Amino acid sequence: MPPLSSLRIALANLSQKPFRSMSLALIVAIFSFMLFSGTMVSANLQAGIQSLSARMGADLLVVPQGEGKKIESVILRAEPTTFYIDESLLNVVQKIDGVAQASGQLFISSLDAQCCSVKVQLIGIDQATDFVVGPWLKKASDHPLKENEVIVGDYIFGEIGSELMFYNQKFKIVGRLEPTGMGFDSSIFMTLDMARKLGEIATPEKADQIEKSLSAILVRVKPGVDPISISDGVLDQLGLRANVNFVFASNMMSDTSAKLQKIVGVMYSVAGVFWLVAALVMFVVYFFAFNERQKEFATLRALGASKRRVIGIVLGESTMLSTIGAVVGIFFGFIVVNFFSVSISKTIGLPYLAPEAAAWIEAFAIALVAGVITCPLAALPTAWRIGRKDIYTSLREGE
C-alpha cells in the first residue's frame, strides 16, 4: 500500500461526501463562470469600442429629420433600415468652409436572403468620394466594386466567389471584411447605383425619389474645425427646410462608452455579490461540518498526525474543490463567450469584437485565482478551530 499522504486522505474525505463536495464545487464553478464570462465580455466590448473609434472615419453624419437613432443602430448593430434625404444636400455640405471630405451612403433593408436567417443591411457607397469604409474595403477586394459585386461583413454566410440574391438580383461576393465588432459585420456593401436599383425594385412607387436620394452624408472636417460649425453652416444656408438631424461622432463615442461602463459595472457587481454569497455558504457548510468531523480530526491526531497536517488536509480538500470548480466554470465560460458571441453582441447592442490573446490570458488568470481561493478562505475559520482543540476535548465533543 502506498503511504497515506495528506492528498490521499483529502481525496478519500471528498469521495465520502460526494453530494456536499459536488455542491461546493458547483458554487465555485458558477462564480468562476460569471467572473470569467463577465471579464471577457467586458474585454470584447472594450475592443469593439476601440474598433469603432478607429473605423468611424467621419466627424459628423447628416441624416433625415428624426433618423438620428436609426443611423446609430446601423453603425452599431446593423439594424436593417431605409430612409432618404435629397442628394442635392451633399453639394451644400461640400461647399461649407471647414469641410475636408463629404460622401453619401444609401441604406436599403434587404428581404430575407439565403445568406442570413434575418434581414440584413445593404449599404451603397459612392466609391469616388467615400473616405470611411473604402480604406478597409480595399483590404477585402483588390479592385473597385462593379455593378453586381458585393463585399460582405464577417457575419454574412458565403464564400468569396459565391453568389447571393436580393430582390431577384444576383450578386457575386468578391471580398469579406475582417471582424469589426460593429454593425458592418452584418452588412453588405455595393455600389451606390446598384443600391438605388434595389431600392427602386423594393419600392417602385418611390423610384423617382430614390434616384436622387441618399440616406446619410458623412463629413470629415479639417483639422481644428469644430463639427458643430458645419451643422450651423448647413442650417444657415437652408434653415428649417433642411429637415435634417446631425449626429456627432464624439457624442456617439461618449454615449457608447457610458453604456459600456454601466454594463461592466453591473457584471462585476453581480460577480462580487455572488462571490460573497458563495463564501458565506461555504463558511456555514464548513462550520457545521466541523462539529460532525471533530472525532475524525481527533483520531488522526491520536494516530500521530500533527495539527499542521490535519489543517493541511482540510485546506487541501477545499483547494481541490475550488480548483475543480474554477476550471469547470472557466471552461463553460469560454464556450459561451466564444461560441455565442454573435448572440451576446446582438443582445447587448454595442460594438463587440474579440480582443487580443493577452485579454483571454488575463481573464483566465483572474477567474482561476479568485475561484481557487474561495473554498480555502471559507475553510480558514474551521482550520483555526482545529488548531485550538486538544485531542481529548475533540474526542469527547465528537461523541
Automatic annotation (TrEMBL):
| ABC3 transporter permease C-terminal domain location | 269-381
Q: Which InterPro entries match?
A: ABC-4/HrtB_transporter, ABC3_permease_C, MacB_PCD
Q: Where in the cell is it found?
A: Cell membrane
**Which residue ranges run through the membrane?**
266-289, 310-337, 357-380
Q: Which UniProt keywords apply?
A: Cell membrane, Membrane, Transmembrane, Transmembrane helix, Transport
* A UniProt-annotated Pfam family: MacB_PCD
Q: What is this protein called?
A: ABC transporter permease
Species this chain originates from: Sutterella massiliensis
